[in-house]
C-alpha cells in the first residue's frame, strides 16, 4: 500500500472539503500547509496538493505558496495531483501551477480538479477519482 499525503490550504472551507474527499478515497494522511514541509516529501509515495485561487489567479501567498516552493525541489519523479477552488477567472492559476510542477519534474497522476466556489457533487466525485488515481 502506498503512503499518500494530501496537503491543502483553505480560507472558506471549499478546498478543505475537496481535500477531505481526496484523502478519504486515497486512504491518505491529511495535512494543512502549516503542518507540512519539504523534509516530509520523501516520506510519501504520492502527494495531492490543494489550494484555491487567490487575488489575480495565484496560489495563497502567505502560507501555502512558501510551503509549496520549499517542496518543489523535492518533487522530481514524485507522483502528485493538484486541486482547488476559485471564485472568479477561468482556472488560469491551475494551468500555471501544473506547468510549474511539470517543470520541477513532478508526475501528475490525473487531471487536476477545480471547481467554482463550494464543491458540488460532481466536483467531490472528481476529487474522489483523483484520490483513487494516487493509489
Protein architecture, described:
By secondary structure, the protein is α/β, with parallel strands linked by helices. 36% of the residues lie in helices and 21% in strands. It is built from 4 helices and 6 strands; from the N terminus they run βαββαβαββα. It has helices at residues 14-26, 64-72, 92-103, 121-134; strands spanning 4-8, 29-32, 46-50, 79-86, 107-108, 113-116. Strands 1, 2, 3, 4, 5 and 6 form a 6-stranded parallel β-sheet that branches. Helix 1 crosses helix 4. The longest helix is centred in the last third of the chain and has 14 residues, at 121-134. The mean pLDDT is 96.
Summarize the structure.
The protein is α/β, with parallel strands linked by helices and 135 residues long.
Helix content: 25-40%
Low-confidence runs: none
User: What's the overall average pLDDT, rounded?
Assistant: 96
Largest sheet: 6 strands, parallel
Structural class: alpha/beta
The Cα radius of gyration reads 13 Å
**Quantity of strands, as a count:** 6
Q: What's the total helix number?
A: 4
Quaternary structure annotation: single chain
How far do the termini sit from each other?
Answer: 8 Å
Q: How does the overall form come out from the CA principal axes?
A: globular
SSE succession: EHEEHEHEEH
Estimate what percentage of residues fall within beta strands.
Answer: 15-25%
